[in-house]
Amino acid sequence: MQTHEHDDQTSGTRSISLLGGVAMGTGVMIGAGIFALTGQIAELAGPLFPLSFIAGALVTSLAAYSYIKMSNRWPSSGGIAMILQKAYGPGVVAASASLLMALSMVINESLVARTFATYALRPFELEQNGLLVSVLALGLIVFAYLVNAAGNRSVSGFSLVMSAIKIGGIAVFAIAAIWVSGFASGAFSEPATTSSGEALLASVAFSILAFKGFTTITNSGGEIVDPHRNVGRTIMISIAVCVVVYLLVAVAVGSSLSIAQIVEARDYSLAAAAEPALGDLGFYFTVAIAITATASGVIASVFAVSRMLTMLTEMEMIPHSHFGMSGGIRSHMLVYTVVVAGALAVLFDLSRIAALGAFFYLVMDMLVHWGVFRNLREEIGARASILLAALAADAVVLSAFTWVKLKSDPAIVLYAVLGIGAVFIAEWFYLARRSSQAQDS
């Protein structure tokens, strides 16, 4: 099987420490996972919504097994594209699944950008103004482009500092809110029911989306110090840190607000929870942390996705046109990334953006597990039972999520199916044309 080799001999300088890798992974995860998705998860799962984060962490830990095994065997800055190429060869499946991953990352940018705008407008009670939310979200995406265009060092330093600030700030908010409200008030005083098990399962799709930032570590495997040892450790530490932070916030929000209040404020649930628990000071503190977290999350995500798209272009897995722009492929990909993310941020609301990202990511994740199980498990020493368990968990969550969305918002299911289909068809045409041109020459 012919593949592009992105192994640890050619992947470049080891510049990311274990701590730096954890900061990078948690920085991307927490930007979306807390501020953008807590309300969406509670809307589906009801008073049991903290359990959704636990289930999401378990499914993500199963999923991480494939990525860790592959990264241990071939530490690479090729990341997910490398995994897919080795699993399927340089064809339509590998290229399409890699592009789905890149698109899910772009979708994440628009999700977090709209969350930033919603929190920024909340002190002025303008968070329901769709035009202002779209303008502010677009402004953040443009700012993220400018920071990234300034160079990698700007992104790295900014992300490390912001990761520490937001994790510390979120922990302070959550512990203070729990201290004031206790564990028996708000949503947790409401009767829990298991009658809507499918909705609880469906909410896990959003929880998985809240953890998917661990793939940023996989995509930087070739740059992590002692990657055979540290890539897996970095991923599992990042997931562990995030599940603790997520549970703290879920309990804080659930103890301060009823489910109806969380649903009403689902796009800014942390700020809504801070006000009754901690007063005006807590409210403004939470808004400030949210703005910091979401802004840094978008900047880190633009950096990661532009790198991934550049890599896919260099591996000839996606077409490229400079449209008359000067500079290299990376600078062009920065522009394309922010254009697509900006369009999504303007055209869709938070719920639909999150749903679209969940569909794209889960399909890609299942393709990774199946490819590793079918073609690589013996070579990398992976257990078939764990690979199949990860595949089954994704399938169950995706099925439940699709069923719930078909009942509540069938249009977004159609958009997802059309989007995934378009990616596979476009890749088939592109690769067939490239193959034909190679034969003619």
Could you explain how this protein is built, in words?
- The protein is mainly α.
- The protein has a single domain, classed as Amino acid/polyamine transporter I, CATH 1.20.1740.
- Helix 3 packs across helix 15, helix 4 packs across helix 14 and helix 8 packs across helix 14.
- The longest helix is centred in the middle third of the chain and has 46 residues.
- The chain starts with 17 loop residues before the first helix and ends with a helix.
- The N terminus is likely disordered.
- This is Amino acid permease.
- It is found in: Membrane.
- InterPro entries: AA/rel_permease1, AminoAcid_Transporter.
The total count of helices amounts to 16
Tell me the distance between the termini: 23 Å
> Which term fits the overall shape?
globular
Q: Which CATH top level class fits?
A: Mainly Alpha
The structural domain count equals 1
Low-confidence stretches: 1-12
Quickly give the CATH architecture. Up-down Bundle
Helix content: over 70%
User: What is the radius of gyration computed over CA atoms, rounded to a whole number of angstroms?
Assistant: 21 Å
Order of helices and strands: HHHHHHHHHHHHHHHH
Might you state the CATH topology name?
Answer: Amino acid/polyamine transporter I
Structural class: mainly alpha
DSSP strand tally: 0
CATH superfamily: Amino acid/polyamine transporter I
* Major β-sheet profile: none
